[in-house]
Design brief:
The complex is a heterodimer of chains A (116) and B (113).
Chain A lengths: L3 E4 L2 E4 L5 E7 L5 E8 L3 E10 L2 E4 L7 E6 L2 E6 L8 E8 L11 E2 L3 E5 L1
Chain B lengths: L8 E5 L4 E6 L9 E6 L6 E6 L4 E2 L4 E4 L5 E6 L8 E7 L16 E6 L1
Parallel strand pairs in B: 1-9
Antiparallel strand pairs in B: 2-7, 3-4, 3-8, 5-6, 6-7, 8-9
The chains are: A mainly beta (116), B mainly beta (113).
Chain lengths: 116, 113
Amino acid sequence: DAGITQSPRHKVTETGTPVTLRCHQTENHRYMYWYRQDPGHGLRLIHYSYGVKDTDKGEVSDGYSVSRSKTEDFLLTLESATSSQTSVYFCAISAGTSGGDTDTQYFGPGTRLTVL
Amino acid sequence: DAKTTQPPSMDCAEGRAANLPCNHSTISGNEYVYWYRQIHSQGPQYIIHGLKNNETNEMASLIITEDRKSSTLILPHATLRDTAVYYCIVRVRGGRYGQNFVFGPGTRLSVLP
């Protein structure tokens, strides 16, 4: 299994509070991703990073920000949590070497976030 | 939108081969077919991928038709622990890294004792 951990694994918070989720990898992979998973929507990409301090938006980035100050950590922040952000959040990593079949993504165990 | 079509659910008897089909009729020449699975509420687990040749690893075999418009994931001897949702994903050509994987609803495989 890829060395990916997520913290916290479970969190309950109230609307309007800031929340930060952490993804930590020990693989020294270049690319890191945040997805959310909701019933009826599958996994949707929120943000991703292609290197330290290099990030970009995915398809559902509104209301989220990310930071990557070192290779091993990728943080997802909800500045002011809303009930619509109740979801399961997965982090993924990939080596991302050029082109073809070397960018297989490996997923972490997930964080279950409930916003009341 | 997902570029693949999978049956929503399938059953398989324990110990038998599980054959999970996937249709990707609009696949482009340089796009790979990936398979992942998700057991209960765990993170998706990578299984296998291929471009045009059949592939086999310790978990499964991937059979891609000659025209590449469909593929089949084969779990040779299914166990109860293989009960999961299986996702067939086509890696979109080009675009940015990180936007290449689109997960559809997948196939819910139930392995029955």
